[in-house]
Every structure is written in C-alpha cells, then in structure tokens.
Amino acid sequence: MTVEQIRVSSQWLDLREPADAAARSRGLVEHLRRQLPSAGRLEIHDLACGSGSMGRWLAPLLPGPQLWVMHDRDPDLLEVAAATPPGPAADGARVVVATRLSDITQLRPDDLAGASLITASALLDLITGDQLADLVGLCSAVGCPVLLTLSVVGRVELAPAEPLDRSVAGAFDAHQRRMTAGGRLLGPDAVSAAAGRFRMMGHRVLVRPSPWRLGPADADLAAEWLTGWLDAACEQEAELAAGVGAYADRRLAQARAGQLAVTVGHSDLLVLS
Ligand SMILES: C[S@@+](CC[C@H](N)C(=O)[O-])C[C@H]1O[C@@H](n2cnc3c(N)ncnc32)[C@H](O)[C@@H]1O
Fold first, then answer.
1. Does the bond joining 160 to the residue before it have cis omega, within 30 degrees of 0?
2. Residue with CA closest to ligand 1 atom 8
3. Which pLDDT score, from 0 to 100, does residue 1 have?
4. Coil, strand or helix: which one is 140?
5. How many Cβ atoms are within 10 Å of 61's Cβ, its own excluded?
6. Are 235 and 181 in contact (CB under 8 A)?
7. What's the gap in Å between 73 CA and the centre of ligand 1?
C-alpha cells in the first residue's frame, strides 16, 4: 500500500521553503539537541524529503558532522535535494547528503539502521491510519528520536474574514480526510493520531504549534496556497464549486495584492524514547 500518488512540484516546495523554515518549532530543536549523541557523526534519515528543505533548515541548527540520508519516491526531487545540500552544521562541521529512491511506506528497520534521528516534514497528513501505524512501528524499532514537522491541523484564518471562509475550510478538511485506494487519509487528524500512537508505544511526545503566518511579503505563496485550498474544497463539494466564483476571484486578487493575511495551522512533534 503506498501514499496517494500526488506529485509535488519543486517550484511549490521552493515557494514554501522560507515560510516552512520560519514556522518549524525551534523550541523542539532545543529539546532534540539535548537527546542527540555528542560525539561522532549524526546519521539523519529524512523521510519524504522532497527537495531537501528540512535538511537545509535543521542541519545548521545541530552541532557536529552529519550525514543526511534523504528518502523520496520522486527522483527529480531527490536530484534537487542532492544539488542543494544543507550548509555546514551549527559549529561549522561538515554535512554530507546521500539520496535514496524509496517508498517510505515500505521501509524496514534495517534500512534505517544506524540512524541518530528520523525526520519528516509535511508528510503525516498525507498518509492513512495504517501507514501511520507502520511508520510508528518502524521508528520505534529503530529507537532514535523522531522529529515530524508541519502537519496540518485544520485551522485556517483569513483576514479580513468572510462568511464563506468557514464553508471552504470545512470542505478542504473533508478533502484532506478523503478516502483513497489505500484507505482514508489522516489529514488534520494526523497529529493527534501520531502523538497517541507513539505514546501508546511508551514514548515521550512533545507537540508544538508551527503555523504559517503569511503577510504582504508572502503574496506569491498566499496566492498559490489559496488556489490549491479552493481547488481542493471545490473538488470535494460540487455545490460549493457552483457558488464560490466571485468569492474566489476576490480572495485571489486580495492575496496577489498582499492584502490577505493567511494563517495556516500546523503542528510539530518530537518523539523521544
Ligand atoms: C508535501 S511534500 C514535502 C516535502 C519535504 N518533506 C518538505 O517539507 O519540503 C511531500 C513529499 O512526500 C513524498 N512522498 C509521498 N509519499 C511518499 C512515499 N510513499 N514514499 C516516498 N516519498 C513519498 C513526495 O514525493 C513529496 O516529496
């Protein structure tokens, strides 16, 4: 069983990278640093790495030499990840990248043997409950800390607000929880489901908010995000699609002009043994 095969473009990942970097919880990194080995090279496995933005954010916040093993099923994104590696570690030590073309739902503990840390970013809401159970089992078997960032939690605020915002947000959340050939996607339930499963396995789990807060400087990202948000909501509810034309035009014009403040709720999880 694989995660629903939606291809993510590197242009979209580029556009969101600064907002993702600003949103991820630095407080969790402080906790994480205290749990990592203080000597030797860290081996960090980034699952569903895309173009490698997690490594570019996290590697310079961690001290010591690091090997980042980047896993994704998209060879084009892996090529970008290899071509744009993270900068040096917090203390200037060398950071090296290796890429692996993998379906992360098929990984076994041996594939991650030697890991000091497992990470994933913007992944959990795309998987099903069964896939989450497998992922939690995999991470538990490897036995290292796990940092899972930027999972959507179903909170979207637009300012200025309009009455239709709630209906679109509800349809978007339903789209995120849609049934696929592999099962129902977790969408906004991913964070509570993951925290619950890791705790059931006896792990300590820290959860922190990591919302995007997009303002006038993020007009391109806000407009692109809004387009995807509206498209997904309309795909989910045909009757909504028939009634949002003027609303969609107005909201997109506001976003492009930097006149729409957008908050998209996410959470980050740090799992410790
Ligand atoms: C929303 S993107 C996030 C990329 C990156 N982690 C980031 O934060 O920029 C989701 C990524 O998951 C990858 N992906 C989804 N399902 C996968 C699977 N079953 N195995 C490997 N990669 C997968 C996609 O190719 C895509 O790169």
1. yes
2. 121
3. 38
4. helix
5. 15
6. no
7. 7
CA angle 110, 111, 115 (to 5 degrees): 90
Atom 14 of ligand 1: nearest residue by CA position:
48
Dig out the tokens for 39 from the structure. 């000597």
Rounded (to 5) percent helix, strand, coil in the chain: 50, 25, 25
Strands (E) across the chain are located at 42-47, 66-72, 95-101, 117-121, 146-159, 179-180, 183-184, 204-209, 212-214, 261-272
**What's the pLDDT tens digit per position in 193-226?**
999 999 999 999 999 999 999 999 999 999 999 9
CA–centroid distance, residue 247 to ligand 1 (Å) = 31
Which value, in Å, is the radius of gyration of the alpha carbons in the chain? 19
pLDDT tens digit string along 92-105? 999 999 999 999 99
pLDDT in tens, 103-144: 999 999 999 999 999 999 999 999 999 999 999 999 999 999
> Could you tell me which of 130, 111, 104, 138 has the C-alpha nearest to residue 190?
130
Q: How confident is the model at residue 67 (pLDDT cuts 50, 70, 90)?
A: very high
